[in-house]
Amino acid sequence: MKKEAYLNKLETLKKWAYAYYVNDNPVATDEEYDVLYHEVLDYETANPSEVAEDSPTKRVGGVVRDEFSKATHIKRMWSMEDVFKTEEVQEWLDRTVKNVGVTPYFCEPKFDGASMNLLYENGKLVRAITRGDGLIGEEVTDNVRTIRSVPLSIDYQGQIEIRGEVVIRKDDFEIINKERKAEGENTFANPRNAAAGSLRQLDSSITAKRRLVFYPWGLGENTLTEANLSEKMDFIYALGFLEPPFVRACNSIEEIEEFYHFLIANRDDIPMMMDGMVIKVDDTVKQEQLGYTVKVPKWMCAYKFPALEKVTKVNAITIQVGRTGVLTPVAEVEPVDLEGAMIARATLHNYDEIERKGLKVGDSVILIRSGDVIPKITKVLADRRTGDEVDIVRPTACPTCNSEVLDEGTLIKCQNMDCPSRVVNSIIHFAKKGSMNIDGLGSRIVEMLVEEGKIKDILDLYTLRFEDIEGMEGFKEKRINKLLEAINDSKGTTLAKLLSAMGIEHIGAVAGKSIALEFGLGIVDVNEEQLEAIDGIGLEMATSFVEFMRVNREFVLKLFDKIEPMVEEKVEAVENPFKDKTVVLTGTMSVGRGVVKEMMEKLGAKVSGSVSKKTDFLIHGEDAGSKYDKAVKLGVVTLTEEAMREII
């Protein structure tokens, strides 16, 4: 085959693929498609330097990464303000009219998936980035290239960011879960989780098998000249992107409500999971006039659907043990379908809630789920009881390690740091920034080390050797040495930081520092009375700390031997305007807020994370948000970072 014939066959293959995967209207049989596909593939295999960038053969994946790199959006990806009632929609409309006058609105379904930003340059897809924190996300281009509804090339030569939602259709979701169940793998909880998990596969060939679909809903960087967003989106659809099944231009609350209820009535027939409807000011000039808050655009909102309810039966109560040892009861229920998600478990938060609801095993209950909210039991149908129901008893021992638990009423806790249920999350907390700050020891690495038996608790980190890690997936010599060096560098940290890293319930950085300064390495033997004598330490904190040290005394002493923490001397702060005052920090400062926090603490200030009537000063940098607004409302003294430094 000559190159000209290859290019002609390639164009035909692309048209057939588009008709099948995007239009859902095949124009060739599967056999015809397969024959043509392999003809194209054979030519590309023989002529690798001539493979077209947008060839359908590139959709199968095969790139395997060690990890995902971070990438920056050219223009920020925003969250959305949520509204739930007609009155709240009207309030939102009134605000837009007040600021920009009467304006048309553009409404469309809000699909429940994973937000994605596609960057095209000179007609080619060059980067795909997850939403992340809105400024920086994970670069998943290799995986997104496998999504059939994402064009690899478009008829547009400028730089453009196309935003949208990666989803899995409900029917495909059921197929995927059946396949996973047949292969002995865990099934996905819902289509949104399946979509997000599929995008984060290190092996792009796995993503290629997941039947992902991309629906665009907006733009970032672009030079399109259309006056309205809906017109710009029509241009995007014309480039080869999928169009939502329904969109509507609305000019009044009545028209918005009509479309909203139309979507609710048809939600079962729409192939994708929806959790609401998006309302946008259509005029792009008026969008910019309305502007943004710290978190959301003022020109768009999400009108969320009502929560879905189903009646089901509680079959059992299981207990989850969290990082800090908190025991959380979970209701195992008769599986019910809620908007495409098969729900078999519901959170109960704590045993006090079980007692308040009067819940028993065997009870019929009302289960509710709304959007991203975890399914929960809202009501026990006691009138349906048969007499066979069983009371739920508060646990007295950890279900994993059988250690005696500390029952504080609302919270029941396992204090054993060696408890297998706590190990992975306790190590992740121990290593994270703000604790021991062990660079390179992220959550996935910790999981791998524990799964492969390289470590079984925090202490094992300090006996890791090069040969223990050598040969593990993604670990080359340089990376292994860097990780071991970071672990070693964590030795000699302050006792206060080590205390914070242990994850003791109710003991944060401020309390940990106070206790470390007061008792030094003798903290393992302090009693509640001694702790309560420290300003800011109450009975609940003291009880938790003493119980933790009782259960983990030998473990903590071994940590002291390994890490040799530095015991800081208690120094009385000189008189200054911040001594014994409660200070809150917010906004972006010239140095990290941790540096400013330490500076304030050395001056004798108590640094709090939230503003209240007891706050004496709010010190702020650039982009101060809700904390600043609350401080002004409460009459708290506000200082810029520069003013604070002048006072010092």
From TrEMBL:
Known EC number: 6.5.1.2
Residues the record lists as binding Zn(2+): C398, C401, C414, C419
Residue span, BRCT domain: 573-648
Signal peptide start-end: none
Keyword annotations: DNA damage, DNA repair, DNA replication, Ligase, Magnesium, Manganese, Metal-binding, NAD, Zinc
Active-site residue numbers: K110
Entry's Gene Ontology BP terms: DNA repair; DNA replication
GO MF term list: DNA binding; DNA ligase (NAD+) activity; metal ion binding
Catalytic activity annotation: NAD(+) + (deoxyribonucleotide)n-3'-hydroxyl + 5'-phospho-(deoxyribonucleotide)m = (deoxyribonucleotide)n+m + AMP + beta-nicotinamide D-nucleotide
GO cellular component: cytosol
NCBIfam families per record: dnlj, PRK07956.1
Family assignment from sequence similarity: Belongs to the NAD-dependent DNA ligase family. LigA subfamily.
Protein name (database record): DNA ligase
Native source species: uncultured Sulfurovum sp
